[in-house]
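Protocol step 4 of 5: obtain the predicted structure for the target chain.
Materials: sequence only (see below). No template structures provided, no constraints applied. The aim of this step is simply to have a reference model before the mutagenesis design in step 5. Sequence pasted as it appears in the construct record:
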Amino acid sequence: MERLRLSEEIFSRLDLAPLFSLLKRGQKFLNQDLELRNSKGEVVLSCPKSQIPMLSDQEYCDLLQRELSQGRIQQISLDQSHLLTAVPILKDDYLMGALLGCGRQDTGAGSRAGGDSLRLAKYKQAKDLDLKIYQHLADMIAKECLTQLEIMSLSEELASRYEELNLFYDVGQWLRGVQESDESIQLIIDKISDTLEVDHSFISLPSKNILTMSGCFESWENNGGARSHLERLGNDLLSSLVNDDFIICDQINSRGLLKAHFPYPAEVSLIAVPVNMSSLRQGVLGAFFLHDEPRGKKFTASDVRLLQSMAEVISILLSNTELYHNLKTFLVNVVKCLVSAIEAKDMYTRGHSERVNHISMLIAEHMNLPPAVKESLNWASILHDIGKIGIPEKILTKPGKLTDEEYAEIKKHPERGYVILKPIQGFQSSLDGVRFHQERYDGHGYPQGLKGKDIPLSARIIAVGDTYDAITSDRAYRQGRSHQEAVAEIKRVAGTQLDPDIVRVFLEVAESHKEELLKLERQTEGGGVG
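Step 4 output (structure tokens):
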């Protein structure tokens, strides 16, 4: 029979109470001393009855290697009165340990002249029964061990699945909002490290200029920088994954391909999968950990599946982000064309909306507003005058003072802009900025006469940018005024026409971005009614 392999020590991982109960039951039937030993020869459990010494550790190990590893039951006479029975406890092709029992043997049976055939027959019958009980007890112990190991394995697998589901849930939550792909990818990389319990995870995607890693690998930082090492590692792994779906390497320093990338004295274990885009392998998603001992944590097929799923998520994320930016660029161009068509009605208003947009976004940056608020403000500021599309050109370009009826028509443009944009789902958060940018802080504005902080923030910001551009732009009835004059006028109307808090931020912008504002001033070719 082929020699059985010794298993790793497993009893330290088990609940020994059920095993001890089995030993006690066996002792009751056999009326013998019983021991359970592991594959290293160490006593795991003992049920002594008569305190008769069994084998020494060395004698047991010799027996383990010589006889029990063949899968055979052994019986050895310890002395004239005592017989040792050793039964191997098996797990597949592995020897987990042995059940040892020591009982009295009847050496006198059949040894006297004439013998005692009846006594000898009874002794042999009892001995055979004991062997069956031993074998049955060893089988029950093995079954209990395997049951516990299977439960532990299932528990570990469930814990792993839970962590993976947690990862997918978190990634799904991140992707529900519109975020930059770089930020989302870094979140995914960090979460992969936590889920796989590795030192670092990384992604290399040269075609998208993406190269990032979780944490800081100090050894790389001290040897030419992590980025250059990670870039070379990603390129080499991508070449190796041309025909493979994954790479798992438990002793990376033994592979000449990868050895140079890890200037580190310990072993490195690595796993990597390709990132496919447009049916082409364009990058690598991987993870690795460092361990000082020869036997460290090993990657599994489950880890491969997790990385492959995340690689697919990243691929979809990048594709969707690219599509989103393409659609956004298209929409911006459409909006600019629409705004240009409106401003073409009046030579003095050309570029007005873009200049107001520029100033409004500078203010938003200085206020450190959240990305979603800045996005809404961006659209509102460039579309704030879209309601003027229905105003006759003769009113917009009139060089003299407007009549009451003409001014009433002008005052309709914020509400008209709101009505135009309201059906468009993507502009819902920008409607307030369009509708209320002509409100005054003192409550004397239009269309609703809102006052103070009741006026939406975006409208209060746009009002400052709109006022600055109206002052510095040429009108049909006057020349535009200077930057300094515009700043002075805005200071004067703070608290009445404009929000004083927004004005304070604008004054900071006017100081720190003076050249930008002067450049905008030089671009003004004229302006109609603001």
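Step 4 remarks: The first helix runs from residue 17 to 30. Residues 250 and 269 are 4 Å apart (CA to CA).
Proceed to step 5.
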